[in-house]
DNA sequence: ACCGTCACATACACGCAAGC
DNA sequence: GCTTGCGTGTATGTGACGGT
């Protein structure tokens, strides 16, 4: 009966919120406020969770008094009860609808609709146009393709027709992004740049307003979990683009002094499975594995909010290339300005990060990856090749995080990269590092020849054992530079604008729609601590965490650098620990393995060196440590082999045998590292311009000392 | 060819009030 | 102070139509 309290004219007003001129305190003439958008509901929930009392009435009162949207006791209670679901929906908001989204849309053919969205997105990104008739035609095409309807059944009755009205709404739904991209493409200043000189001038003028520490560049790289040089592309899918499900994409964002850095954006199709992963606010999950505009926007927003929280006055500028996903609305950025490189120049070599940061980052990560592969090669005897040379995404992400956590203290690397790009006032850098003997050599970019040599050596070992399944990825190893370049920067790992074929769109949408949202558990923890966690992104970690690990042993590293130590079940650890289980097969393999190890030890590194004719190694020229390691290795192996040559011993002590086996593998790995280090150190002395990052990663005090004199700088640069 | 409006359909979410 | 059943309002997809 009470429903008739409202006079009919209330209902006739479709948008009561537009009539706010009516005073609200007149009860008899009260207008209903508009419904809350999903974003507003989330705002209420956040406020509620962060409030002292967590009293629904109090929260209700607060937002009721604001009078921005309708809210009642029962409504709000339902929001609280459905919090997980609401937050799940909130994650799926796009830039197009996040301002208006209220009710979950129910499309007739959601998948086909999504296909058309992707297509339309791409068309606007590529600055093309499409007529409405064509759009409707494409909808039908997608419909046929998605449901695998053969063209022979091509009668109009099987395909639902789409009307003009439908199209109008479709275009309105996608209007926000379209206008955004259009604005980018009509930026006359950006597109009028013709020469590199113009561009440098333009950027210098723009950047002049900022201090060095406020100038950032962001750029993406990716890593394939199964490098094609080891495993030929199986092409189980029909994608014409690099498969996003097989890679992890990383966006580095650093400033010109290297002083303040943000955790890199990491995207993959690996769903966060534990609390740690969920708490990392720079780690993003996308069902297709692709970096989306939304993810990129969220990342930048969190960077912005971090600055706004810690230093409200600080304004920074971020340099970006013309990757489609970089085009985001900027009106919400209070502390960030985005500046794009001129797309018309087609990526000439002048981006600061390309002068060393990217290369060294890739080198470090690939080095760790190779170590994992090596470990799997020696330990995982019963694994297939494709398994051996495929990383889990957890491992890869861990490696990326660890690498970053080490590299971010290398301010020298970053500042030098920026300096060499010549986009910033050079005197400022020279003032900071007065000892730098730089000339105007533009093409000079930094690299870690030490690590690169080690990688090449490891690749050679693999090549000699004929483990390369696919030689396409790597050129002749005689051209050492090409060799390493192809390994570090294979085409499949480039992050660039791609053109999706219709079949790609279908495939991606299929992937997006498989599985029915399994993520309805344990959203509680992350929700209540969102505010807290966001602040973690930009927090420079304390120097105490710079612990460097001399060995390549990865297990030890996971315990440091960003992962809380009270979390015993990191996926990586779990995997490595269960790697060796006592089984008859493993036990039987031990004898053979011991032989293997011994042959490598007694003829030290012959396998590693067989083809490195440029440097001849012998024991006397190696440093003492290496010789010692080799001798100890020989000694131990001899004893062990004797001991385990008796069958009853191996049966009786099978567990111990496995332990020994494991220990020896670690030992082998570490002495390999030692060896490679001494090998590379010798080599590096011959190089006129190398970059020895291992020295640079010393304690800060030592670095300062190095910077003090010109002589030590030469030594520092190799 | 493009753009906008309208009527209609529908499912979800709102507000009330009673119940816990 | 929080939850729930019920009747209905609201948001929004859809397609027809008409104007420019």
UniProtKB/TrEMBL annotation:
Region Disordered, residue ranges: 517-577, 686-718
A Pfam family of this chain: DDE_1
Superkingdom of this protein's organism: Eukaryota
This protein's UniProt keywords: DNA-binding
Any one annotated GO CC term: nucleus
GO MF, one example: DNA binding
Keyword DNA-binding: yes
Recorded coiled-coil stretches: none
Comp. bias (Low complexity): 524-537
Domain DDE-1: 246-411
Keyword DNA-binding among record annotations: yes
Regions of compositional bias (Polar residues) in chain numbering: 538-556, 564-577, 686-699, 707-718
Location of the HTH CENPB-type domain: 110-177
Protein name as it appears in the record: BA75_02028T0
